[in-house]
Amino acid sequence: MDYANRKRPAKRKPAPQKRKSNAKSQRQVPWGVVVLAVLLVAALVGGLRFIAGGKSDEATPPAPQQATDTPDQSAEVVAEPMPEKPQERWQYIEELENLEVEVDVPERELGPPKLMQCGSFRKQADAERLRAAIALQGLESKVYPSNNNTWYRVVLGPYETKRDAEADRHKLQRARIHGCQIWNWNL
After folding, report:
1. In this structure, what are the phi and psi dihedrals at residue 79, rounded to the nearest 5 degrees?
2. What are the pLDDT digits (tens) for 118-160?
3. Do 112 and 184 meet the contact criterion of CB atoms below 8 Å apart?
4. Which of 5, 31, 49, 99 is most deeply packed, by most CB within 10 A?
């Protein structure tokens, strides 16, 4: 079926309806619903007045009581002196100021010396190039041949603690020299 070229169906006119008489066409008001709505509104208003706590007919506040005192009695106001500041009951403040604390700190055991290897190359020229870049950062490195002079390692150290080796490794990382590893080696 060709939907693009089809014609629209003709509009049908609705059939004429019979008119009802005027008396039936007017709706009658449901008086029961109206009475119920009025009762609900009255109950709501009464409930709000009850919650407010009083009659809303009394719009004027009660008159303040007049003072029966004579002006001479109210003018005499005697200020009592403040009580003295109590002394401190705590003595720990003075005790702590003069107290010395002794702490036993065991000596740190130093492990084997640490070496940091920053590269391993087949050509000695590449190892010397990395050694020069490390020397520009103020650190001293050495090139060690291994495997019958077929590999050349660039090594820094020895370091007594790993913290010293880490400090130098971070310095090299800031200079964009990455790949340095810290080992527990002994040469």
Report:
1. -85, 125
2. 999 999 999 999 999 999 999 999 999 998 989 999 999 999 9
3. yes
4. 49
E-assigned strand segments in 94-150: 114-121, 141-146
Of the candidates 165, 67, 151, 155, the residue with the CA atom closest to the CA atom of residue 114: 165
| CA 141/CA 130 separation, integer angstroms | 9
Bridge-partner residues for 114, per DSSP? Answer: 159
What is d(CA 116, CA 123) in angstroms, rounded to the nearest whole number? 20
Catalogue all structural domains in the chain, each as residue range(s) with its CATH number. 119-183 (3.30.70.1070)
Q: Residue 144, exposed/middle/buried by CB under 10 A (0-12, 13-18, 19+)?
A: middle
For residues 151 and 143, give the distance between their C-alpha atoms in angstroms, rounded to a whole number.
Answer: 10
